[in-house]
Amino acid sequence: MQDFLTTAEASALLHKTAQSVRTMIRTGELPAQRAGRTWLIKAADFKKFYEQSCGSFSALTPSADDASCKEVPANDGSRKKPVALSFFSGAMGLDLGLEKAGFDIKLACEVDKTCQKTIRANRPDLPLIGDIRSYTKDDILRLSGVCGDIDLIAGGPPCQAFSTAGARRGFEDERGNVFLVFIDLLKELNPRYIVIENVRGLLSAPLKHTPHAARDEGWVEGILGKPGGALLYIIERLRGAGYSVSFNLYNTANYGVPQLRERVVMICSRDGSRVPYIAPTADQYGRFGLPVWKTLREAVQGLTSCHHSEFPEKRLKFYRLLGPGQYWKDLPEELQPEAMGSSYSLPGGKTGFYRRLSWDRPSCTLVTSPTMPATDICHPTEDRPLSVEEYKRIQCFPDDWIFAGDLVRQYKQIGNAVPVKMGEAIGRAVLNHMHGRQVLPPEGFPFSRYKLTDDVSWEAKVRASFGLQQNEELSSQLQELKTA
Question: Beta partners for 269?
Fold first, then answer.
C-alpha cells in the first residue's frame, strides 16, 4: 500500500462520499494533513481507523504481490461475471450497457465533479477515482479489488492534445495528454480486452493541428498536420503491446437506440485475434432480417415528467410555423433571412437550425444543450426543447437513473453519454469473442453514412497518405523528425 491516501481513495475504500471523509478529517475522527488544497491521510492512520470502524483492512485491499492475491484465470468458473474497469466514465452510459451485457464494473474513473455526484448517487458502493494521471497501476488494482486478470477496460478518453483547442502539442505532449496516459495505463494493466469510444473526428485528427489563421501562403502540412495521424499513432502503440485492433464508425440507431448518433468504437484483444465488427440489431429499412429503427415516438411514450429549458421568444415565433420533421428551409421564403440572421448567407445545409424532430424517425444526435441556435432540438409538436426525461429515454437510461446538477448540467451529462443500448451491443461483441462465438454482421451492412471508416480501409488510406511502406510504422517517421 502507498504511504498516503487522498480523500477520494479513502471515500472509495470506506464506501462514503468524499464530503463525509472531509467532515471526519475536520472533526479529528480521521487524522490527515493538508498538502496545498488536498488532504493526505497516512496509510497507517487510515488502516487503524478502518480496522476500528469496519474490521480487517488487509482482507479488503490485498497488495498485488500478497500471497492471498494469486493469479486467477479469467472466467474459469471462480467468477460469476467477467470484470471490467471504467475510465472517463461520465454518467455511466457505456458502463450500464456493459453491465446489461454481463460485465461486473469494479471501478469508475471520472474527473468531472457533477458526473462524480451522478455516479455516487446511483452506485454509492462503486470505487470512484478522479484524474487518471494521479493513479498508478497498483493504486487502481488496490482500489478496484481486482486480483489477476482484468477482462475489460473501457473508456472514451478526450482527444485534447489532438483537438483544435488548446496548445495542440500533439504527440509531443506525452505527460499532459490524458489519451496517451490512458494508453500507457492500458499497457501496464494488460486487460484481456480494451474498448475505446470516441467521436468521428478522431478518424481525421492530426498529430498536431495548425489553426487556419496561422497558415500563411508558405504553410506546408507536414507529417504532424496530416489527417489521421493521431489515431494511427494510437493504433501502433496498442499493437506494439500485442493487441489486435478493430474499429468502425457505428450509427447507434442500428443497435436499438432511437437516435442517429455516429461514434468510433475500437475493440482490442490481448490474444492478438481480431474482434469482428459489432453485429447490428436493427436496420433503417428492415433489411438483413432485422427490425426497423426505433422511433422517437416509441422511445418517449408513457413519459409523464417533463423538465426542460426554454427557447427565446424570438425563435419560438418561427417554431410555431413548423411541423414535425421540419427545419428552417420549411419556413416561408420571405421569413428565412430574418429567422437565420447572419447565418443565412453561410455555406452548408445548416440542418440544425430550427429543427423539429419527427415522431416516426429516430432523434437526431443529442448534444449537450438542445437550445443552441445551430443545434436546436425541438419537440415534434410542442413549442419547447426536448426535456431531460426525453433525453434520458433517447439515450436508453433507466427512468430512475439520477442525474446530479441543474438542468444545464443534466443535459450536458446525458448528451455526452454513450447510449446504454450501444454499450450493451459493445459488451456482447466482446463476450462473444471471449467465449469463442463467431457472430458476424450481415455482409454489406452500412454501419454509418460514411465510407472508408472501418479499420482496414481507413488504415490503407491513411498509410498511403503518409507514404508508409508495408511494414513501416508512423513512429519511425516521427523519430526521424525529432532527430532531424
Answer: 193, 244
